[in-house]
Amino acid sequence: MTVKEFDEFVKRQHEAGDVDWERERDEWLSHLDALYLKIESLLGKYTSSGQISIRYKSIELNEEDIGSYQARQMILRIGRQEVDITPLGTRFMLYNGIVEVLGSAGKSSLVLVEKSRVSAVPKVMVQMSSGGEQQDGPAVPLEWKIQVRPPSQHLDELTRESFFQLLMEVTNG
Amino acid sequence: MGEAADSVSGLSSLRWAAQYHYDVVRSLHQYFKPGPTQSTTSHATFPKPGEGVQLAAYMKETDLRSSLAILTSIEAAFQLDYQYRCRQRLEDDLSLLFRSRYRQEQSFVSLEKVIFDAWSNYETGAPRLIAELRGAFRYRHWLAHGRYWPPKLGRRYDFEYLYRLAYLVFLTLPLNGVDEA
User: Fold this and answer.
1) How many separate domains does chain A show?
2) pTM of the model
3) Do A93 and B163 touch (CB under 8 A)?
4) pLDDT tens-digit profile of A133-166?
5) Cβ contact A140:A107 at 8 Å
6) Cβ(A154)–Cβ(A106) under 8 Å?
7) Residues linked to residue A147 through DSSP beta bridges, in sequence order
8) Which domain holds residue B109?
C-alpha cells in the first residue's frame, strides 16, 4: 500500500459519498415503473381479453452504495407459460439498469441506456475506458432497449414487434 | 479441440465462448423437448432427463460455468500481458512497475493485488473498468472455489453481462501477448 494508492482510495470514497444514492435508486425505480406501464400497454389487447394476465411481486435488491431496497417483479401468465420480468439493479458500468426476462425456454434482458445508444459497448464508453474523461453534463434521456445476444453488440428498440418476438423466444413459442 | 478452444484470451476466444455457450443452451432445449428417447447413433443412446430435473436448473448451471470461463479468460489476458511486458522489457511506466515485481516474484503475481492495482494507477481511463472487474472477480472466486458461501456481490452477474465487460476489456485496454487470431 503506497501513499498514492491511499490517496486514490480516499478520493474514490469521497466521490462515492457525494452521490445522492437515494435519488439514484428512486430514479431507477421510476424508470422501472415506466417499463412496466409500457409492457402493460403493449399487452393491453391480450390482458383485456383475459388471454394474458399480469401480476406483481415485491422482491428485495441489494446493491453496492445503495444498499437493500424493494422493487417490483412483473409476472406474465400466458396460458400455461409464465414469464418473470425481474429487475437486476442499476449499479452497472455498462447500463443504467438491467431487467431480466425469464421464460421456460430461455432468458433475455432489457437494458436502460441513453436514447441514442445502439450498441451494448458504445464508442463513448470505449473512448472513456481508453483515455477519455467522463464529462459531467445535463442529464440525457434514457430508454429501455433489448440486448441482442452475444456475439452481437446490437441493442434493439423496444417496440410491440420486438417485445412480442422476445416473449416468443423465451417461451419457445 | 477446435482452433479457437486453444486460445485462452482475446476477442476470438470470447466469440468462441459465446458460440459454445449458446450451442449448449440450444442443445439443452432440444434435450428437454418432450418426446421419445433420442438416439444419436446406433451405438449411443442418450436417455431422457432424470425425474425432477428441470431445464431451468440446467440453464442456470450452464450460465454459471460459462461465466467462469469468461472470467478466467480475462485473468489469462492480464497475466499474459504482465509476462509479455516483463520479458520484452517494455519501457512505459506500467511495464517498469511490472518489471520491478518480476525481478522479485518472476512469472506469478496476484491479479488483484498487483496487476489490477498497477493498471488502475498507471493507465489513464482504466480505473473505472478495473473497479468493475474487481467486483466481477468476487463472483469469479465464488464460482471457482465451490460456491460454498452465500456470495455478497452487491449485484447479480450473468454470462451476457460478463461477455460485454470482457469485450470492453479486450477492445480498449492495450493488453500485449493476447491472441487476437
Assistant:
1) 1
2) 0.83
3) no
4) 445 556 789 999 999 999 899 999 999 999 999 9
5) no
6) no
7) A155
8) 7-172
Q: Where are the beta strands (DSSP E) in chain B?
A: 38-39, 45-46
Q: Please check whether residue B155 is in contact with residue B60, taking contact to mean a CB–CB distance below 8 angstroms.
A: no
Tell me: cis bond preceding A151? Omega within 30 of 0 counts: yes
Q: How many domains does chain B have?
A: 1
Nearest to A63 among B121, B154, B160 (CB): B154
Residues of A with CB under 8 A from a CB of B: 4-5, 8, 12, 62-64, 88-89, 91-94, 98, 100, 102, 104-107, 109, 120-121, 125-126, 128-134, 147, 149-151, 153, 172
Answer whether residue B162 is part of any domain.
yes
Strand residue runs (E) in B6-149:
38-39, 45-46
- Given a cut of 50, whether residue A16 has pLDDT beyond it is yes
Size of interface A-B (CB pairs under 8 A): 86
Q: Is residue B1 part of a domain?
A: no
Give yes or no for a contact between A29 and A71, defined as CB atoms under 8 angstroms apart: yes
CA A42 to chain centre: 18
pLDDT in tens, B14-52: 999 999 999 999 888 888 877 665 555 556 666 666 666
Range of the domain at A13: 3-131+140-171
What is the per-residue pLDDT across B116-169, written as a single tens digit (0 to 9) for each?
Answer: 999 998 887 788 899 999 999 999 999 999 999 988 888 889 999 999 999 999
Contacts of B74 (CB under 8 A, 6+ apart): B9, B133, B136, B165, B166, B169
Q: What span, in angstroms and rounded, lies between the C-alpha atoms of A156 and A145?
A: 6
Q: What is the rounded distance in angstroms from the CA atom of residue A109 to the CA atom of residue A107?
A: 7
DSSP calls for A23-90? HHHHHHHHHHHHHHHHHHHHTHHHHHTTSEEEEEEEEEEEETTTEEEEEEEEEEEETTEEEEEEEEES
Whether residues A172 and B132 touch (CB distance < 8 A) is answered with no
Q: Which residues pair with A82 in a beta bridge?
A: A77
Q: Which of A140, A141, A121, A117 is nearest to A129 (CA)?
A: A121
Q: Which three cell numbers stand for residue A92?
A: 452497472
